[in-house]
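During the reporting period the student researcher (J.K.) took over the structure-prediction task from the postdoctoral fellow and processed the backlog of single-chain submissions. One of the processed entries is reproduced below for the supervisory committee.
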Amino acid sequence: MKKILSYLTYAFLWSIAWIPTSLLYGLSDFIYLVMYRLVGYRKKVVEENLRNAFPDETETRRKEIMQKFYRHLCDLIVEEIRMIHIPTKELIRRVEIREGDLERFDEMQKKGIHTVIGAGHYGNWEWANAFVAQTSYNVMAIYKPLKDKVVERLLSKARLRWLDAVVPLHHVYRAILRYHQENIPTMYYFITDQTPLPFETEYVTRFLNQETAVYLGIEKVAKKFGDPAFFLVMKKKKRGYYRLEIHDCCPDPGAEKPYAITEKHVRMLEMFIREAPEYWLWSHRRWKYSRQVREKKNVVFGRMNNE
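J.K. obtained the following structure tokens:
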């Protein structure tokens, strides 16, 4: 039965993805009414996350952030669906790339430099494909597999319209090693704010006022292969339009102390979230394993204060 439902979901999403983007925002408005006003999808999770992240904010301010977040989340849902069929020209038109970012990465590609790019669940991280569509780099995205394999296949097919490869998180090193051995300058795109399982957790830091387990993938890749690391952010300009910026993080990984690259990525993401908190994925159960992680041995606890 689950498999049938998955295939029906596949067919439904594939079909409505043909609807023009501007019309899909009407569907977003409807989803908002159902998700926020009627069902209250993960409302308690969002309220708790915002309360813990911003304890000094008023209840009124946190409610304002929450409402704006749900508006954005519903836009994000239809934008991800639309990505299945969106014309490349339209995607490029909707995502402004900061002046100079494309040019400097094309220069690095010509020099044969591999690069590691980190991003968070902020803005619309999937529409960063507008950069992929225009860069001369070979681009590999690292993802955490979904439980629903049918929907995962649909999303992977959509991403591969622009990406050269999508690789599961636990097969990263083998894929990166191959690109290095074959001298194919490649950009490795990580989503850095996913939640490691307790047995995977090696490092905990302070993020949004809470002890937070983080993956060390960016740092491990950068240090192992000597690839410079960067942080990509998708800032929402208005509905359906974003500004993509790629910020320097670590030009010389070998010179960095342990966990320094990870901390730089965490701080950059936290800075952008604090600037416009409604665009982060607050419905994500980011801290669901906190108790198990505290009880785990051999975990390094890094920055534990707000200094």
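The committee noted the following: The two ends are 52 Å apart (CA to CA).
J.K. will present the remaining backlog at the next meeting.
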